[in-house]
Design brief:
By secondary structure, this protein is of the alpha/beta class. It folds into three domains: 5-85, Arc Repressor Mutant, subunit A (Orthogonal Bundle); 92-161 and 266-293, D-Maltodextrin-Binding Protein, domain 2 (3-Layer(aba) Sandwich), CATH 3.40.190.10; 163-263, Periplasmic binding protein-like II (D-Maltodextrin-Binding Protein, domain 2). Helices cover 43% and strands 24% of the residues. α1 (5-17) packs across α2. This is LysR family transcriptional regulator. Keywords: DNA-binding, Transcription, Transcription regulation. One of its GO terms (molecular function) is DNA-binding transcription factor activity. Belongs to the LysR transcriptional regulatory family. InterPro entries: LysR_HTH_N, LysR_subst-bd, WH-like_DNA-bd_sf, WH_DNA-bd_sf.
Amino acid sequence: MKLNRQWLHTFATLVDVGQFTETATRLHMTQPGVSQHIRKLEQQLGQALLIRTGKKFELTHAGTVLYQHCQSLVTEEKRLQQALLLDNPESGPCRFAMSGTLANQLYPLFVQRQLAHPGLVVGVESAPDQRVLHLLAQDEIDLGIVTEPPAQARFHSERIGEETLCLVFPATQSESTLSQALLTATGFIDHPNARRYLDSVLLDLPFSMPHDSLPVRGYINQLSQILLPVSLGLGFTALPESTILESPYAQDLRILHRSVNAREPLYLVRKRHRELASRYSWFTDCIRQTLQSS
């Protein structure tokens, strides 16, 4: 049941003031207008709210319950006004989405911020570009990082850095010169971003080789495990350099090619007409500093 807010305000004022005439004066209404609002509420609720005794009145049980409801509405509105005015940089939800590689790099920094300010609630989803933009459009996150600037006008994007893409092999690989024969003989460890990374890196090589001609030795969609089969000698893969260097398997890996011309740009994206809360300032600064220096 949706009650008319103006009628409720008239009723609550009447209870506070205690007289119809004074209520009409305070609300800039006529006395019959006040009576009409009360009568409409009683008709909608199907119960009497007042028992008139001359110029005074007493509340019925229904009237008492309704007055308490009016008071709770006033309290909630005050809380809402306070919440709208309060923009605490050290409290509230902070929602992000980005690739698993970037999440591995940034999330530990985000968690340290949350430890210093427990009022923050940090959420990070590892997702490909399309998923990041979908989450933004659905208001499920407030900031995302993608590798291509979105075409839709509703998004604002800012280039914040780039990643060096590499081909990484087992440390036991003795050959130092990349060739089509070496890539074919070693085999490829596939992962969700591998084809895109590999396409970029292959353009940087002195020979031509379509990625679909490579034998696939395995597939894994968990970023923390992608380099495990590589470290064990099962194949090579393509990943950003930061992921390789920070891997627990780094000592069992060997980078044979760092892409010079094919670097993957990174863009910080948000909704164009949405102002971010002040608590995001630290995170955006952290993202810029971390990715521009990497």
